[in-house]
């Protein structure tokens, strides 16, 4: 039905897709899986015409077609259900259903909407404003709108994130009946369970390439190997074992039934304790809760449940004097640094800011930090003009000496191996004995190498929590996709 | 690689050329000689000390408003409410003078009136800030609303409680006694004390921005509230303080208009100087150093244009056209610069690795 042949997509020098081929038959559901940054979303955007491909060809019913804009995609009957529904919150259900449709007779359209909803077992009230609806209901409406537009190829991007189990069953039912009617369905997901339940074929992407294809029944182990690559059996020996085995230490942070609705999947009743002396790696696919967890640790997000830090019920991270917790965000420039402020000004702001300062104030300290942290720049260089690696080193230089809890998102993102090693070496050296480092990383090797304990998040919950030397990459990568071994007591 | 100063200078020149070019074209089209206009306007603003001091009397409120706006712009806020803050400063000052007239030494009463003006504007700024922080009302809308409220209050006072004996009039309240006028030397049209206050306020503002902790925090908050939080800064508090100080300076301008220029409260006490202040700061690229010069230029335009109808039968609103041309040119040039910067950045990003 639809076929992509040897698709390449380059963003400047970044090769997002390097020769991906995919063939989806009418009346089948085709799964596309891969880890973060494998190229899944880019591929789907090429297919819908949202972005233009660099090279390769698209075939629709055997004929070569040109899809350069979303309009081209729509006219061929290609529709996509996005992760976040693209709709008009202020309008009613019916208005959303009618938006973009050729027919504008309200009565007729209302009847059609109700008939379609009925057919798939959805309960949608045509006159409710959209902001009353849950994400799952908005997704149902979006699906009906696409079906009404006579789509022949349906793409779903992580459709089960943020919807209830009941809504998931309804959705799967709808997808199966669409398949019966001859629709070609592409399901992008990182949840292997739903891929197994729905898909006929499966394509695995890794670093912009098709690495494997499988027919039902799928072989889980080889799917996981294809997704994450071959792992070396033994994680390289490291120095961290001395840090952990120092016996049970005091609690540093304690989460009890913490919930949050921020982020893609929020946080769902998470309870755990973090101890002094620990280096904890947080794993999970993007937006599974790691980042929300870190920000709540840093007291940056509202939440329910109780978080106890440094044995205080209410922490005071906003007090200049008591900066015991620091948070280093992944998006350094937009969340952690102030683009037009210089290196010197950042250092001045970070700790003991004097009441008055002359242009020379803090210049020497800045020069020193530049040397210590190997930052390519002058004291007066604006943070926005630094390269990514240098911005990260600047962030590191801003950690006050008294910091006990260091919270980081992707600490070595965009750094080369040497800078990455340097960063870790430095962090360990600076960490006081009663401190802890909590970091999220998409790089499992980094977690295995640096962390003493790993916590895996899945859909806003902790699905695996183990000391690093009692687990392996295989178990972690299974957990990331939502599977836990039966011996593990945490229920899925 | 060009230095920062060359770029700034180049930006300034291109704004000037663009604006003057546009205005000259307009004048040519109307068959008016731009050269004569320049002559008339410069004669009207700088031919003798009397005229220069008239220009300075306009410069004072402009400089004060612009100083206040430098603070709020630095905090990333669009303080449209500056007009209302001028008005409230004037109202608070008038109330003080009416209340304390004859109760104390005139000098003391005037000093208290200044403090009251500062307070009035500061409160009005604070109100806009609270609306923003606590109720999520954008400062542009909050400020605009508060401007109308302030205008309502001043009209109510002039036509109600503070009306002249026997009749209420647009010409304002009763004149204050001479002892409550800021003293003006003969041959001057501007009280030296007003001039001193305005210059001092500007210098203090510039120093506050350049060399103090508060100035640095203001800048951090204005650039990136989220990141500022990570530095232990409380963005709401810092920007509220910025609004209060900015409003205070605008209020001081209102107070000086009452005590030094009109000697009474009039409905149009702000004369639109607050809005003009916004234009000045924008034209200065939100930096302090160019502000007094641009303010002086705008003041000279306003004063000089008074001669236009008399000498050339050209409406004095030409000065507004010239000011507008400058601001539009500035926005255009800044916009182009920004776009170029963004494009360069994007290019760098695409060249760099990572997704």
Jot down its keywords:
heterodimer; A: 492 residues; alpha/beta; Rossmann fold; 2 domains; six-stranded mixed sheet; 17 helices; B: 355 residues; mainly alpha; ABC transporter involved in vitamin B12 uptake, BtuC
Outline of the structure:
Chain A is α/β, with parallel strands linked by helices. Chain A is built from 17 helices and 19 strands. In chain A, a hairpin with a 2-residue loop joins strand 18 and strand 19.
What do these coordinates show?
The complex is a heterodimer of chains A (492) and B (355). By secondary structure, chain A is of the alpha/beta class. Chain A folds into two domains: 227 residues, Rossmann fold (3-Layer(aba) Sandwich); 240 residues, Rossmann fold. Chain A is 32% helix and 24% strand. Chain A is built from 17 helices and 19 strands. In chain A, the strands form four sheets. Chain A has a six-stranded mixed beta sheet with strand order 6-7-8-3-9-10, with helices on both faces. A six-stranded mixed beta sheet of chain A has the order 15-16-17-13-18-19, sandwiched between helices. A four-stranded antiparallel beta sheet of chain A has the order 2-1-4-5, with helices on one face. The longest helix of chain A is centred in the middle third of the chain and has 16 residues. Chain B is an all-alpha fold. Chain B has two domains: 65 residues, no CATH class; 261 residues, Orthogonal Bundle (ABC transporter involved in vitamin B12 uptake, BtuC), CATH 1.10.3470. Chain B is built from 14 helices and no strands. In chain B, α1 packs across α14, α3 runs parallel beside α7 and α5 packs antiparallel against α10. Chain B is globular. Chain B starts with a helix and ends with a helix. The model of chain B has no long low-confidence stretch (mean pLDDT 89). Classes of the chains: A alpha/beta (492), B mainly alpha (355).
């Amino acid at each position: 039905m639809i076929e992509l042949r040897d698709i390449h997509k380059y963003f400047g020098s970044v090769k997002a897709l390097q020769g991906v081929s995919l063939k989806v038959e009418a009346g089948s559901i085709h799964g596309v899986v891969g880890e973060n940054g494998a190229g899944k979303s880019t591929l789907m955007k090429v297919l819908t015409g949202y972005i233009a491909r660099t090279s390769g060809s698209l075939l629709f019913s055997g004929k070569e077609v040109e899809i350069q804009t979303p309009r081209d995609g729509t006219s061929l009957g290609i529709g996509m259900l996005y992760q976040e529904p693209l709709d008009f919150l202020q309008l009613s259900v019916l208005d959303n259903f009618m938006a973009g449709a050729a027919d504008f007779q309200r009565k007729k359209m209302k009847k059609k909407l109700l008939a379609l909803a009925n057919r798939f077992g959805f309960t949608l009230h045509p006159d409710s404003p959209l902001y009353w609806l849950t994400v799952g209901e908005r997704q149902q409406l979006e699906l009906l709108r696409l079906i009404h537009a006579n789509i022949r190829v349906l793409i779903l991007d992580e459709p089960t994130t943020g919807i209830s189990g009941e809504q998931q069953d309804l959705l799967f039912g709808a997808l199966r009946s669409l398949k019966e009617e001859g629709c070609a369905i592409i399901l992008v997901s990182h949840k292997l369970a739903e891929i197994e339940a729905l898909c006929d074929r499966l394509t695995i992407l890794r670093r912009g390439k098709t690495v494997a294809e499988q027919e039902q029944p799928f072989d889980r182990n080889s799917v996981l190997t294809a997704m994450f690559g071959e792992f070396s059996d033994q994680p390289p020996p490291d120095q961290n074992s001395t840090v952990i085995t120092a016996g049970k230490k005091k609690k540093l942070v304690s989460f009890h039934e913490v919930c949050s609705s921020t982020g893609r999947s929020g946080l769902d009743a998470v309870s755990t304790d973090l101890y002094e002396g620990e280096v904890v790696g947080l794993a999970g696919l993007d937006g599974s809760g790691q980042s929300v967890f870190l920000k709540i640790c840093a007291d940056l997000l509202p939440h329910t449940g109780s978080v106890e830090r440094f044995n205080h019920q209410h922490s005071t991270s906003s007090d200049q004097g008591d900066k015991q917790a620091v948070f280093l965000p992944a998006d350094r420039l937009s969340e952690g640094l102030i683009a037009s402020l210089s290196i010197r000004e950042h250092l001045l702001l970070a700790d003991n800011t004097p009441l008055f300062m002359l242009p020379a104030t803090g210049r020497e300290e800045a020069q020193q930090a530049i040397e210590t942290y190997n930052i390519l720049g002058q004291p007066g260089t604006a943070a926005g003009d630094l390269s990514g690696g240098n911005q990260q080193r600047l962030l590191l230089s801003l950690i006050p000496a008294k910091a006990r809890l260091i919270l980081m998102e992707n600490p070595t993102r965009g750094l080369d191996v040497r800078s990455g090693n340097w960063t870790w070496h430095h962090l360990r050296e600076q960490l006081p004995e009663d401190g802890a480092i909590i970091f999220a990383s998409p790089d499992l090797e980094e977690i295995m190498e640096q962390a003493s304990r790993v916590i895996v998040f899945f859909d806003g919950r902790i699905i695996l929590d183990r000391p690093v030397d009692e687990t392996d990459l295989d178990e972690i990568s299974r957990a990331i996709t939502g599977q836990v071994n039966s011996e593990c007591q945490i229920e899925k | 690689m060009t230095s920062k100063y060359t770029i700034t200078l180049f930006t300034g020149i291109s704004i000037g050329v663009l604006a003057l070019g546009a205005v000259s074209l307009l004048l040519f089209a109307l068959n008016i000689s731009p050269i004569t206009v320049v002559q008339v306007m410069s004669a009207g603003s700088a031919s003798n000390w009397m005229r220069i001091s008239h220009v300075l009397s306009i410069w004072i409120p402009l400089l004060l408003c612009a100083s206040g706006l430098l603070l709020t712009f630095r905090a990333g806020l669009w303080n449209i409410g500056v007009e209302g803050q001028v008005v409230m400063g004037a109202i608070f000052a008038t109330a003080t003078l009416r209340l304390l007239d004859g109760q104390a030494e005139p000098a003391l009463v005037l000093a208290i009136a200044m403090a009251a003006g500062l307070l009035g504007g500061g409160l009005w700024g604070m109100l806009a800030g609270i609306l923003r922080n606590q109720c999520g009302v954008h400062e542009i809308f909050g400020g605009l609303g508060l401007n109308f409220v302030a205008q309502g209050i001043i009209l109510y006072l002039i036509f109600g409680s503070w009306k002249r004996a026997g009749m209420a009039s647009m010409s304002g309240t009763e004149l204050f006694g001479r002892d409550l006028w800021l003293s003006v030397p003969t041959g001057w049209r501007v009280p030296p004390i007003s001039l001193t206050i305005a210059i001092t306020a500007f210098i203090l503002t510039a120093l506050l921005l350049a060399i103090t902790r508060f100035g640095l925090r203001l800048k951090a908050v204005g650039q990136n509230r989220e990141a500022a939080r990570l530095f232990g800064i409380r963005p709401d508090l810092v920007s509220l303080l910025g609004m209060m100080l900015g409003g205070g300076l605008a209020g001081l301008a209102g107070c000086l208009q009452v005590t030094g220029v009109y000697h009474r409260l009039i409905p149009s006490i702000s004369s639109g100087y607050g809005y003009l202040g916004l234009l000045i700061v924008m034209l200065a690229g939100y930096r302090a150093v160019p502000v007094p010069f641009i303010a002086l230029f705008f003041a000279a335009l306003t004063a000089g244009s008074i001669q236009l109808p008399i000498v050339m039968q050209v409406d004095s609103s030409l000065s507004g056209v010239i000011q507008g041309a400058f601001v539009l040119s500035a926005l255009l040039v800044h916009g182009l610069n920004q776009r170029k910067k963004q494009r360069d950045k994007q290019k760098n990003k695409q060249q760099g690795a990572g997704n």
